[in-house]
Amino acid sequence: MKFEDLLLEIGGFGRFQILILAVLCLLRINLPMHFLLHNFLAATPSHHCAIPHQEAFVNLTMEEVLLISIPRKPDGTFSSCEMFSQPQFHLLLNSSLQPENKSIIQHCQHGWVYDHSQFTSTISTQWDLVCEQRGLNQATATFFFIGVTMGAMVFGYLSDRFGRKTMLQLSLVCSVVFGMLSAASVSYTMLAITRTLTGVALSGLSLIVLPLGMEWVDVQHRTFTGILTSIFWSVGNMLLALAAYLVREWHWLLVAVTGPCLLSIICLWWVPESARWLIAKGKVKQAHRHLLRCARVNGRKDFTLWKDMPLTMYAQRIVLQREYKNMGGSYSYISLFRTPVLRKISLCSGVVWFGVAFSYYGMSMNLTGFGLSIYLSQFVFGVIEIPAKMVMYVLVNRVGRRQSQAWTLILTGLCIGANIVIPKPFTSLRSVVAVMAKGFSEAAFTTVYLYTSELYPTILRQNGMGYTSFMARLGGSLAPLMFLLDEVWRSLPEVTYCGVAVCSGAVAFLLPETLNLRLPEGIEDIE
């Protein structure tokens, strides 16, 4: 008897599973509040060079002081990174006559003055991460995703070895500790280190929540489970916009988005360990206890049904032990590449995950240029994800996982490419296309989580999720750095996001279809 048959006997989607999913969805809200925090934590308000001896210009308005002290850019706005070495009083007579002598223009010598109308403080204003230091500002997001990348490999392996729930608890506790330390940072170096460690901790939460939920539900409700947990990512997305709108100071904003992890730790105590994992590890009695509890909560009280269950689970354990023996008695990330079919799945899914994350975070961290405030853009980007997920719930069950994955990625790239050629003044049209791109991108992310959980066997599922999550976080780490390419060519970042999304979408066609198939338990099921 397969584990799927056991689930059907005790209730594959009853009150027990609904309660588990309710807690896991609450946990998932925490993720976007940190993963997309860079939009507000490192926001750079409008700024200009600090003007020395400004008190000497008491008879001039602020606009006139800027006019004689700060050169204008070709678009007519004041430069953010340059100033005149001496006041250019002649510009008061004719402001259109910008000095042709470039030698009188120099970089900011006395710091910067920031517009605090939108943000009380950010790390940009705290440590002057602008102009020549702009790269350090973008690198803050990269450090976080490097942490998530490292955590994906660590938690993927540890959750297969020590259990899903144990690693989930460790992930949440570490997230609280490092999140609070980030809020207390007194230097950029301290912030970079603590944000990296926060990324490591949160990676466990990102990696384990969905597989744990899916290992408790039957085949018919796997898609619903994947979409439901994904919807709560969007809820967290919108809550981040609200939190950032209400808390404009970066230290307290970090406290606000870390606080919910404490509630998650309390709620997680009720969630049981994965019975699939327990059986695979030979812990039959513990799995038996959880399955009996599931039956009672689901109203399946015919306890005569359970006399032979330990024998059934023992038989399944023997099958899995045979798998381990065939693999040389151990399993690791190397096992993902040992057999032909599993090797192809791992290579292709790695490329797909990289493309999904690279394009998703590339758009999610570019909230300007659409004619909306940064808070409204964040909220709208979160709202559009929900109908995108609803549509995917229908599509992945009608057209399949593979087609859905490939086309959502390709359409994401095409929408990003369309915004390259749409002129900047057409802000409404650009906003609509950007929202469409965000919707397709989120649909691709929703599908890839569900799809990957179904591609790998139980004994390697968390290793597979760890590897693919590593590839995703690699894409997430590189995505914010692409914005620095606008100094080479203004549209180069968008061209890069577009090309990667389309190419990774094409690779998705090489993956096998998993619609209505049972979750594979061992490598034999894959090969």
UniProtKB/TrEMBL annotation:
Q: Which GO terms describe its cellular component?
A: apical plasma membrane; basolateral plasma membrane
Ranges where the Major facilitator superfamily (MFS) profile domain occurs: 87-516
Q: Which residues form a coiled coil?
A: none
Annotated TM spans = 12-31, 139-158, 170-191, 197-217, 224-246, 252-271, 345-363, 375-395
Q: Which InterPro entries match?
A: MFS_dom, MFS_sugar_transport-like, MFS_trans_sf
Reactions it catalyzes: glutarate(in) = glutarate(out); orotate(out) + L-glutamate(in) = orotate(in) + L-glutamate(out); 3',5'-cyclic AMP(in) = 3',5'-cyclic AMP(out); GTP(in) = GTP(out)
- Example GO biological process term? monoatomic ion transport
Q: Give the record's keywords alphabetically.
A: Cell membrane, Ion transport, Membrane, Transmembrane, Transmembrane helix, Transport
The record's annotation in Pfam families points to: Sugar_tr
One annotated GO molecular function is: prostaglandin transmembrane transporter activity
Q: Does the keyword section mention Repeat?
A: no
Main localization (coarse): membrane
Q: How does it sit in the membrane?
A: Multi-pass membrane protein
Where is it located? Apical cell membrane; Basolateral cell membrane
The yes or no answer to whether the keyword Zinc-finger is present is no
PROSITE patterns linked: MFS
Task: Give the record's family classification.
Answer: Belongs to the major facilitator (TC 2.A.1) superfamily. Organic cation transporter (TC 2.A.1.19) family.
Q: What is this protein called?
A: Solute carrier family 22 member 7
Q: Give the species.
A: Ptilorrhoa leucosticta
Q: Which gene does this sequence derive from? A: Slc22a7
